[in-house]
Amino acid sequence: MVPTLGWPTIAVLGFLLLTGLVVALATTSTARYEFELNGTRERQRSAARSHGTHPAGRRSAGRPAGAADAQAQPRTVDLAVRQAPATPTGGPGWWLVDEWAQVVAGPFADRVDADWAALAEGLPAVSVHGIPSADGGVAPRPSPEERAWFAELSDQLDRLPSAWDDLVDDTDPLTTLVVEIAAALVEAGLPLQDVSQGRSAGGVCLMPDWPSRGVRVSWRPHDRMGRHAVRGPAAHAMVEQQMNVAIGDVLANLGFVVEPLGATGGSLVTALR
User: Which of 5, 7, 20, 257 lies at a CB distance of 3.0 to 4.6 Å from 271, suitable for a disulfide?
Assistant: First the structure.
């Protein structure tokens, strides 16, 4: 009887013992889990207090806790500023300028050098004579060639006959017209007649035509052919007529309004187109 009851009793006691062991282990694990969980929460609270109330923390570690409500301080901002074009340096000379009148190259000794540089470098620029300006351009000035030309033209205009002395107003359109005609003729290699020394070496004679407000243009040969007729009257008439026709054609091709005048082939110029 005793052996029969012993094994069930031992089994029950073993079951109870194992159950108690499992409960004890579970209790220990639960307590340790809760302890670690509470420690983690405490560390998170401490970190939150050290970084302020914002989830992302503070931008600067040394910033006071109440600085978030303070007014933002102004900051200096660097702006990108376009640099002004460099002012070209140098005295009067020939410069290459672009379509915005800005210097792209120079100075050059003469216009030929400037034009050649533009052609060689493929620069879309034109040559201008002058001095550099503060805005990166060129202030135009007469070139030495232009000053020499003005002096030469002035000498030619001094040869005009005394009939022009009555025209004292330089603003008169007829004055402008005769200056334009004289300039075109001298540029073509045809000088004005000079009778200031009492003799003529030949040239173009310009006389005012008051009724038409124009200029009479005719050729005068050298005194040897005209006054002294060393080659005969026929040669004189032939040269005079051919030169008058040629001069009329030259002026017409240069843009003047030309009308035939007289049997000798002289011309009446009334305007510049």
Answer: 257
- What type of residue is 135? D
Phi, psi of 257 (to 5 degrees): -85, 115
Q: Is the peptide bond between 85 and the residue preceding it cis, with omega within 30 degrees of 0?
A: no
* 165-197: pLDDT as tens digits: 877 577 889 999 999 999 999 999 999 998 777
190 — phi, psi (to 5°)? -115, 105
Kindly report the number of other CB atoms within 10 A of residue 44's CB atom: 10
- Is the CA virtual torsion 239, 241, 247, 250 positive or negative? negative
Measured CA to CA, the distance from residue 133 to residue 140 in angstroms comes to 10
Residue pLDDT, tens place only, 24-61: 555 655 555 555 555 555 555 555 454 444 444 444 44
DSSP state of 260: E
| pTM of the shown model | 0.59
